[in-house]
Amino acid sequence: MSPRACRWVRFSGAAAVLAAIVWRLGAGPFRDGIRAVDARVLLAGLCIGLGTTICCAWRWTVVARGLGIELDLPAAVAAYYRSIFLNLTLPGGVVGDVHRGVRHGRDAGDVGRGLRAVAWERTAGQVVQVLPTLVVLLALPSPVRSFVVPIAVGVAGATIGVALLVDRARPRGRSWWARARRGVARDVRAGLLARRALPVVAVTSALVVVGHALTFLVAARAAGVSAPPTRMLPLALLAMLGMVVPGIAGWGPREGATAWVFGAAGLGADQGVATAVVYGVMVLVAALPGALVLLGARLDSPLRNLVAGARTDGVADA
């Protein structure tokens, strides 16, 4: 399937999910979610978003340096904000990450390595998100508790398989598969499992998961959900897994997953949709510094040209 066809499939799927929710529940939960947003909720989202973005950027710098390309933290934070904003406002959900990898790769003189650094950084975040989710789902009641044990066994088996792949990869063979295997093993060892990288990648990824879950709990409370945190945390982590699926500027799979999770937990699908709407608004507002980064980049180039022209004129007049 071509990339364009994949984009249309994702767009159509997200639109179908939203249409099904409106058909089944009406537009009321969406209106309730919008009305539940106030200045305190948005401020909480901005503060939590700042923390999670710094953690993501720090993780990215560590992975990039492990792959041999330098990246300082302030530049990484600005680029990550821009990436999140683009992911949330453009179809596909990954445009910002691709832009971030290409931009950094061009600055470092190696686009391929820049893209690989972003890919491994994002992969590490997703892997770490799964692990605490499984722990919480095993420890606390949830709608999927009966399925958690076989899923955990499958994840453990996959983890062991990847570890064996990385450990046994040797510089032999000229086939495509052999070269790819060596490349993956080299990147994982240097970018993720190195002594200086692994603790930072693990801790920052865990903090990002905590931040996203806290944002979800704030959104649920603002939407009027009064269930205790011990009941809400498994639902938050389950809904966050559904949010990994790209939608229409973030909308679609998020509302569908949250509606299903809340409905299965007996809290009402309408409450789930309202919570997802509040969460979506919080995340979008938290990403607005990325729009300022984009605007600054657009203004920076003409300003540099203007300054350079003024200097040239000054030298000529002298």
Q: Assembly state here?
A: single chain
Topology order in helix (H) and strand (E) letters:
HHHHHHHHHHHHH
Largest sheet: none
In the predicted model, the low-confidence regions spanning at least 5 consecutive residues are 306-318
Number of strands: 0
How much of the sequence lies in strands comes to under 5%
Helix content: over 70%
Rg over CA atoms, rounded to whole Å, is 22 Å
Give the overall average pLDDT.
Answer: 84
Task: Please tally the helical runs, counting DSSP H or I stretches of 4 or more residues.
Answer: 13
Number of domains: 1
Structural class: mainly alpha
What's the N-to-C terminus distance? 62 Å
Principal-axis shape? globular
Could you characterize the architecture of this molecule?
This protein is mostly helical. The protein has one domain. Helix content is 82%, strand content 0%. It has 13 helices and no strands. It has helices at residues 3-25, 28-36, 39-66, 73-89, 95-108, 111-139, 145-168, 176-192, 198-222, 229-242, 253-264, 269-286, 288-317. Helix 2 (28-36) packs across helix 12 (269-286), helix 3 packs antiparallel against helix 9 (198-222) and helix 6 runs antiparallel to helix 10. The longest helix has 30 residues, at 288-317. It is globular, with a radius of gyration of 22 Å. 36% of the residues are buried. Mean pLDDT is 84; it is low at 306-318.
